[in-house]
Amino acid sequence: MKTINVLQGAGLGLALMLAATAAGQSADLGAKDEPIKLAMLEWTGAHVSTHIAGQLMEKLGYKVEYVTAGNFPQFSGLADGSLSASVEIWLNNVGDIYPKVLAAKQIEDVGKLDLKTQEGWIYPKFMEKVCPGLPDWNALNKPECVQALATPETAPNGRFLDYPSDWGSRAATILADNNMPYTAVPSGSEGALVAELEAAEAAKTPLIMMFWGPHYALAENDVGWVTMPPCKQQTNEHCITPPDVDKIVWSGFGAKWPAAYAFLKAFKMDATEQQKLMLAVDKQGKDLDAVVKEWIDKNEAVWKPWLDAAKG
């Protein structure tokens, strides 16, 4: 009888210990039944990063929702908690609201995405014959270059193809700072930017435009990057440099979803890998979720440390 009681006591102790461990794990997840709402921005690279993060958080035991959000409007949603997180914020293009809500501690920056970036002015390589002297920016001021780039809507100025209006425009400021005879014309979308680049390459139509990397279009079109004009003022509006890309969460995120918070702090995105996935989605017409799942299935060695960091 005594032996049985001891075994029963040991069994009870083990059960209590397992229950406590399970409770601890559950607490680490936090509000796992409330969905984490991830901002889905306009460009495919952000879709890739966001869905990789989302599928991995689902592996942790969370519910995830993807919410379409504009590049600037997202910060209002992150500030009030209607959006939970945004995993690919290009810090060179955040508008006026971002620094305000960051200073007010309504949002939190949880670190670099480690995405190797490029940004600036590009042109199809054949433009080096149209504007001798490229990639030096001074070549764009030569009359024959300006004339080649002029259109009925911009003449006598050359046409500069800019980002969509709601992304914010620095190109127009830089053109004005350096008295360059160009008119910045906003594109309608990312797709429109790429379509113009491809059309210019195919028809050998002169083009100068704002662009960024990583992007699948850079793997399929031979482009040059302009050596940029000098910065007149050392601000984001007057200078273009390869931007940092950070991960931003609602200020209450860490307390509400502790394991997801630890995961997002550890989460990284390799530019070369992202570009491959973008190519599969945008040019090969593959389903985003399927492409991301295939990458996750093949790259456990990459993402397992992020989940391990989340589990503590």
Question: What would your notes on this structure say?
Answer:
By secondary structure, the protein is α/β, with parallel strands linked by helices. It folds into two domains: 30-115 and 244-311, D-Maltodextrin-Binding Protein, domain 2, CATH 3.40.190; 118-225, D-Maltodextrin-Binding Protein, domain 2 (3-Layer(aba) Sandwich). Helix content is 46%, strand content 17%. It has 14 helices and ten strands. The protein has helices at residues 2-29, 44-60, 74-80, 97-103, 127-130, 143-149, 171-177, 190-203, 217-220, 253-256, 258-266, 271-282, 288-298, 300-311; strands at residues 36-40, 64-68, 85-90, 107-112, 118-124, 158-162, 182-186, 209-213, 223-225, 245-250. It has a three-stranded antiparallel sheet with strand order 3-10-4, sandwiched between helices. A three-stranded antiparallel sheet has the order 8-5-9. Strands 1-2 form a two-stranded parallel sheet. Strand 6 (158-162), helix 7 and strand 7 (182-186) form a beta-alpha-beta unit.
- What is the second-level CATH architecture of the largest domain? 3-Layer(aba) Sandwich
Distance between the termini: 41 Å
CA gyration radius, whole angstroms: 25 Å
What do we call the CATH homologous superfamily of the largest domain? Periplasmic binding protein-like II
* Proportion of beta-strand residues: 15-25%
Kindly report the spatial arrangement of strands forming the biggest sheet.
3-10-4
